[in-house]
Amino acid sequence: MLKLYYAPDNASLAVRLALEEGQIPYETNLVNRAVGGQKKPECLAVNPTGLIPALETPEGILAETAACLLWLSDSFPDRELGPPVHHIKRGIFLRWLFYLSNTVHADLRRLFYARRFVPPGSLEDHHRIMVGHLRGHFDILDNAVSDEPGLFAPPSALALYAGPLLRWAALYPVSADRWLSLSDYPALEALVLALEARPSVPAVAEAEGLGPSPFSKPGYPNPPEGSAL
After folding, report:
1. Burial, 65: exposed, middle or buried (Cβ in 10 Å; 0-12, 13-18, 19+)?
2. What letter would DSSP give residue 62?
3. Closest CA to 214 of 166, 180, 149, 157
4. Is pLDDT at 108 greater than 90 in this prediction?
5. Of 138, 131, 132, the residue nearest 185 (C-alpha)
6. CB 3.0-4.6 Å disulfide test: which of 9, 16, 97, 202 passes with 221?
7. Could you tell me the pTM of the whole model?
């Protein structure tokens, strides 16, 4: 059985959605961020980067959200998480999966953890610059979803990844003004509403304390175990 190393409302959320959506048997291992669990020796032995998620599989332990999603898509091709190898849409799927990972997710991390990247006196300028980048990223994604609605439609891993990214952009960093309005991105708004209609979402939302509309009207998590921060 697969084992997901997770923390509530962390990057593991996208992988957990894929596991639930694909009805793939798995168990969870909570990483308690409230006590720095991701940096403890037992977790570093699983993922030396000290990041969440990690996915224990028969082929070894995976890390990196996009890698986990791609492995699940390829290992369970009948679950329709993504087009199989040699499918005509495979290349476009990979393009947007890694755009979500390497560009959108990476820039969100730079926004959320600004003190890791810039000195204190530059935080305000850094926030303004990163928000500008992210607005542009979501414009590009909104157009991509409009152009390739079938490729992004749930249960595609692209939807399962985009939903959490939009959720986090609307909520974090906690100390900053809210800047994201889903209504500015109609294709992405339709995508998250379709995602919330999937049976996988209520199960994951309950397990991680995400509320009834975790992507379209996100609120801060109230998980039954562990901590999101």
Report:
1. buried
2. E
3. 166
4. yes
5. 138
6. 9
7. 0.97
